[in-house]
Task: inverse folding
């Protein structure tokens, strides 16, 4: 079976850092807003919203904060009309970057994303300059303490999973976007708790970075993900474990 995304492993390692920086609730709120905006404010009728709320509760987000996020998504609470936008560009070494944002002011967000890219050796590109490199893929990450390999393999393959990997203490499942919700809901119904479940954007080609380019790229991803309007950042870079260890030691 094909190997799971190297960037997924980096994202898991970064999760603790994001929480330390106080960004976790902001990201969870945006997930709730997007889910409510796309499927309504009733979590019983909107599974994406239910999962977003569950994730927020697991991170001890207060109920009134969750309620405000739902109302922002449904338009009951003021704050301007929200738009989902994609910003495309390049990072150090010609790496492709696709940045998904939710904003109430595109005239503010665009220039700020452009500034972050340029400060780290990148640049903002035109629409579809890199989007064609990426395709949607369902990804579910489950701690291997939550289930057995036999159980999760049987469930996943029955629901159309394309790939199952066991590495770094996780079962990593990938699937076609059309199979994602059914697979996620089946795992949930079986009482298996997953760490993350999302439809991500996977690149068809990758660029390996080392040295200064690798350092700048990691800082660039950090800064983009810390932006208040950014929901997700996708890229096609690879950095070896040895290079990551070197950077972490500096």
Result:
């Amino acid at each position: 079976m094909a190997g799971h995304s190297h960037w997924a492993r980096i994202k898991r390692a970064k999760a603790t850092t994001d929480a330390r920086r106080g960004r976790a609730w902001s990201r969870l709120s945006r997930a709730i807003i997007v889910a409510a905006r796309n499927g309504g404010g009733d979590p019983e009728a909107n599974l994406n919203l239910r999962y977003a709320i569950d994730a927020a509760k697991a991170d001890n987000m207060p109920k009134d904060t969750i309620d405000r996020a739902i109302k922002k998504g449904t338009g009951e609470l003021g704050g301007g009309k929200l738009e989902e936008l994609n910003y495309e560009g390049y990072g150090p070494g010609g790496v492709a970057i696709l940045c998904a944002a939710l904003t109430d002011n595109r005239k503010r967000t665009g220039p700020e994303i452009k500034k972050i890219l340029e400060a780290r050796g990148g640049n903002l590109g035109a629409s579809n300059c890199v989007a064609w490199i990426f395709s949607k893929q369902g990804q579910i990450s489950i701690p291997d303490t939550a289930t057995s390999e036999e159980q999760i393999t049987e469930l996943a393959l029955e629901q159309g999973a394309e790939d199952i990997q066991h590495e770094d203490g996780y079962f990593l499942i990938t699937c076609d976007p059309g199979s994602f919700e059914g697979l996620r809901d089946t795992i949930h119904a079986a009482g298996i708790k997953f760490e993350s479940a999302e439809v991500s954007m996977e690149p068809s080609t990758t660029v390996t970075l080392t040295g200064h380019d690798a350092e700048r790229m990691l800082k660039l991803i950090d800064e983009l993900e810390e932006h208040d309007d950014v929901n997700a950042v996708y890229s096609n870079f690879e950095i070896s474990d040895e290079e990551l260890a070197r950077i972490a030691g500096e």
Notes: The first strand starts at residue 83 and ends at 90. Residues 6-74 form a domain with the Arc Repressor Mutant, subunit A fold (CATH 1.10.10.200).
